[in-house]
Design a protein that fits this description.
Blueprint: E1 30-36, H1 62-82, E2 90-97, H2 105-119, E3 121-131, H3 138-147, E4 151-157, H4 161-166, H5 175-185, E5 189-196, H6 203-215, E6 220-225, H7 233-239, H8 248-264, E7 268-271, E8 274-276, H9 284-290, E9 294-298, E10 303-306, E11 309-313, H10 317-325, E12 331-336, H11 339-350, E13 357-358, H12 364-375, H13 381-385, E14 388-389, H14 393-397, H15 399-406
Parallel strand pairs: 1-2, 1-9, 2-3, 3-4, 4-5, 5-6
Antiparallel strand pairs: 6-8, 7-8, 10-11, 11-12, 13-14
Pfam family, one: Radical_SAM
Main location: cytoplasm
Subcellular location: Cytoplasm
Length: 409
């Protein structure tokens, strides 16, 4: 089942934001996330807020979704203006899901055109959509590029059929090089998403997936350890003993292999799970999350953030459509982060970046911990002596433990 929304305070029906969102607004970039909640098949490991066609009805149909999403864009414009926020062009736009490309390319283009028509785009802005390899054609990719998309992230996950079967992925491995070439022909930058640690995946399987992905020459690779979420099909299979469980040592060994092969292919890590061929090809949208910029999340279950205020929409597409149809905010709840919480989140996120975080921005406890982290080979000594805390390979494997040692008391 889709993941559970967090608890929070009631969100106002008019969408108005508190005055604190104006503090420092000129120093923060503004992005847009558009959630497309549709999938052809629910993958066994996934707990995202997604739905197959058989689970939907009424105003939640895929045919009507673009118009509903555009109505939230228009609601966001009014709410931000009424809250006193200045007009800012979009620095990034990201269509995620679900499988955004289950919608016709024309519908994705309509949503993007509406958003850009209201807010505009920064020069060089990044506009990404996620896609499954079996959900695009040369024609649909060209239409997306013509509409202003600049980048596509394909959910490759693995190059090994038996691993894809465990993950319930529907594409065949031979489809991936085709869609990569089609995307390049359309002028789109290409990212490939991989998952490691799937039950039954050997080290040789993982090497095959890495080498295969790298042979396509992507601009960017994301490699994520499989996390077994409660309530998913995969969790039930593991509990019943139908497939083996997850092994932390296996995950660590596979991460080390990923870093070795991806780095040797000329891509550098810029976040623990992400590598890009050049700094300019790092995912700017995800960097905006990790650096605490502002973004509005469009769609059921989508999360938003403005100046330390975070809110999230109702989960079900029918409830989402009904609220917007009634002219009220689709937000289910929100929270206002205090200064201490924002500082903890900043440290947690910036510590995972290849650029690291400033040592002198840590409190006394954090600064005193740095020497021990160097001694334990968890942070780069050269960077630390220059005032930045940057994780070593060992530190990336133990990133959560590093963060615990530098957090304020």
């Amino acid at each position: 089942m889709p993941s559970v929304l967090p608890l929070g305070d009631p969100a106002p029906a008019d969408g108005l934001l508190p005055p604190q969102v104006l503090d420092g607004v000129d120093s923060r970039k503004f992005g847009l996330y558009v959630h497309i909640p549709f999938c052809a098949v629910r993958c066994g490991y996934c707990d995202f807020n997604t739905y197959t066609a058989t689970e939907l009805g009424g105003g939640a149909s895929q045919d009507a979704y673009a118009s509903t999403a555009i109505s939230e864009v228009e609601f966001a414009v009014r709410a931000m203006e009424a809250s006193g926020l200045p007009q800012r062009p979009l620095s990034t736009v990201f269509f995620g899901g679900g499988t955004p490309t289950l919608l016709p390319a024309e519908d994705l283009a309509r949503i993007l055109t509406a958003a850009v028509g209201h807010w505009g785009l920064e020069a060089g802005a990044e506009v990404t959509t996620e896609a499954n390899p079996d959900s695009v054609t040369p024609e649909s990719l060209q239409l997306l590029a013509d509409a202003g998309f600049t980048r596509i992230s394909f959910g490759m996950q693995s190059a090994v059929p038996h691993v894809l079967k465990v993950l319930d992925r529907t594409h065949t491995p031979s489809r991936v090089p085709l869609v990569v070439q089609w995307a390049r022909d359309a002028g789109l930058a290409v990212s490939l998403d991989l998952i490691y640690g799937t039950p039954g995946e050997s080290m040789a399987d993982w090497r095959t997936s890495l080498e295969t992905a790298l042979s396509y020459g992507p601009d960017h690779i994301s490699a994520y350890a499989l996390i077994v979420e409660e309530g998913t099909k995969l969790a039930a299979q593991i509990r019943r003993g139908e497939v083996p469980g997850i092994d932390d040592d296996d995950h660590a060994a596979k991460y080390e292999l990923a870093d070795q092969l991806i780095s040797a292919a000329g891509l550098d890590w810029y976040e623990v799970s992400n590598w890009s061929r050049t700094p300019e090809q790092a995912c700017k949208h995800n960097l905006a999350y990790w650096r605490g910029d502002d973004w509005w999340g469009i769609g059921p279950g989508a999360h938003s953030h403005m100046g330390g205020v975070r809110w999230w929409n109702v989960k079900h597409p029918t409830a989402y459509a009904n609220r917007l149809g009634s002219g009220v905010s689709p937000a289910a709840g929100r929270e206002t982060l205090d200064a201490g919480t924002r500082e903890v989140e900043r440290i947690m996120l910036e510590a995972r970046l290849g650029t690291g975080l400033q040592v002198d921005a840590l409190d006394k406890v954090g600064r005193h911990a740095v020497a021990g982290l160097i001694a334990d080979s968890l942070v780069e000594p050269g960077a630390a002596f220059q005032g930045r805390l940057v994780l070593t390979l060992k530190g990336r494997l133990l990133a959560d433990a590093v963060v615990r040692r530098i957090l304020p008391d």
